[in-house]
């Protein structure tokens, strides 16, 4: 009785399975894997370039493969080090930021470029952390800055009077 047998120079073993050397190939490009680095997905082996081409996420900014970590912004994958403020280019990963016209900004840049300024302290009013602000006519105030111009009592949730550019509590406004 004749037996057909495949003779090969080496037997390849990986994760408890054995292959003929000529059968241990990338599932995509069919190149021999041998001792090259490989990645297994769904019990199929791929050379690293083919795996990256087929399955890996590519950074929206630099277009390179994201090998570990990464983040998502507007449904797009990013390297953490590529996710930068549209204004000053500082890294935003891990810190709070504000989105404007689909671009991310650090709080400082957003404040300088787009935020309304508080009528009392002149600093930007941003919505980070759910900050509350008061708006009256064309002016805005931080909640903590909305105080009587004479006695400094908080006017948040209270009635107030105006005198030129000042806002006053009823007591101080009635005394003038």
UniProtKB/TrEMBL annotation:
CDD domains: LIM3_FHL, LIM4_FHL
GO molecular function, one term: transcription coactivator activity
Metal-binding listed as a keyword: yes
Domain LIM zinc-binding: start-end pairs: 57-116, 117-176
Keyword annotations: LIM domain, Metal-binding, Nucleus, Repeat, Zinc, Zinc-finger
Keyword Metal-binding: yes
Source organism superkingdom: Eukaryota
Gene Ontology terms: biological process: positive regulation of transcription by RNA polymerase II
Cellular component, GO annotation: nucleus; Z disc
Main location (coarse class): nucleus
Compartment list: Nucleus
Pfam families in the cross-refs: LIM
InterPro entries linked to this entry: Znf_LIM
Name by which UniProt lists this protein: Four and a half LIM domains 5
Organism, as annotated: Apteryx owenii
């Amino acid at each position: 009785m004749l037996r057909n047998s495949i003779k090969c120079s080496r037997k390849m073993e990986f994760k408890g399975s054995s292959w003929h050397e000529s059968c241990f190939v990338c599932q995509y490009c069919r190149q021999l894997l041998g001792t090259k680095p490989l990645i297994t997905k769904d019990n199929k082996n791929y050379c690293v370039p083919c795996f990256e081409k087929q399955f890996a996420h590519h950074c929206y900014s630099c277009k390179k493969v994201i090998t570990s970590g990464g983040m998502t912004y507007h449904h797009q994958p990013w390297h953490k080090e590529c996710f930068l403020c549209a204004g000053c280019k500082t890294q935003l990963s891990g810190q709070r930021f504000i989105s404007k016209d689909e671009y991310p900004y650090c709080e400082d840049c957003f404040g300088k470029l787009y935020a309304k300024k508080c009528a009392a302290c002149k600093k930007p009013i941003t919505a980070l952390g759910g900050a509350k602000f008061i708006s009256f006519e064309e002016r805005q105030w931080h909640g903590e800055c909305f105080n009587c111009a004479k006695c400094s009592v908080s006017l948040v949730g209270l009635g107030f009077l105006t005198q030129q550019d000042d806002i006053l509590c009823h007591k101080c406004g009635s005394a003038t």
